[in-house]
């Protein structure tokens, strides 16, 4: 870094230790320019929360939480929107968050990504103004999304 005149921002630096199995080095820390950087259980990089087990549960939890908040707000103004404008809002605000880096979640078990599937189902019901327990498969097909998860 010194060769290329780069400076490390120690306020944004995190140490993420991913042990193979159980490891006695879990309390690992490093010192850079007199500042101690301790290991953490998770770290955020480009909007994706990576954890020390790479199970992405924290990332899924954060994504689902933000999408639920957006769906709640769209639901409040839904009576004033057409189906098409609701679909545009849901696609730009919610579906874009679900799609962001979803290739990282491809090999995860269905029980882990279930919260994201439930968000997608709720979004489809909101677009078509259907009740909570209505069947969602035909709605997803008509939106052309199928099931992404």
From TrEMBL:
Record's protein name: Reverse transcriptase
Phylogenetic placement of the source organism: Eukaryota, Metazoa, Chordata, Craniata, Vertebrata
């Amino acid at each position: 870094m010194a060769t290329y005149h780069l400076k490390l921002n120690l306020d944004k630096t995190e140490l993420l230790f991913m042990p193979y199995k159980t490891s006695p080095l879990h309390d690992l820390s490093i010192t850079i320019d007199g500042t101690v950087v301790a290991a953490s259980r998770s770290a955020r990089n480009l909007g994706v929360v990576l954890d020390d087990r790479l199970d992405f549960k924290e990332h899924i939890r954060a994504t689902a939480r933000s999408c639920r908040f957006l769906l709640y707000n769209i639901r409040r103004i839904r009576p004033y929107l057409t189906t098409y404008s609701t679909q545009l809002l849901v696609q730009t605000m919610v579906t874009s968050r679900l799609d962001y880096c979803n290739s990282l979640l491809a090999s995860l078990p269905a029980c882990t990504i279930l919260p994201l599937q439930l968000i997608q189902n709720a979004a489809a019901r909101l677009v078509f103004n259907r009740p909570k327990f209505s069947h969602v498969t035909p709605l997803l097909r008509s939106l052309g999304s199928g099931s992404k998860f």
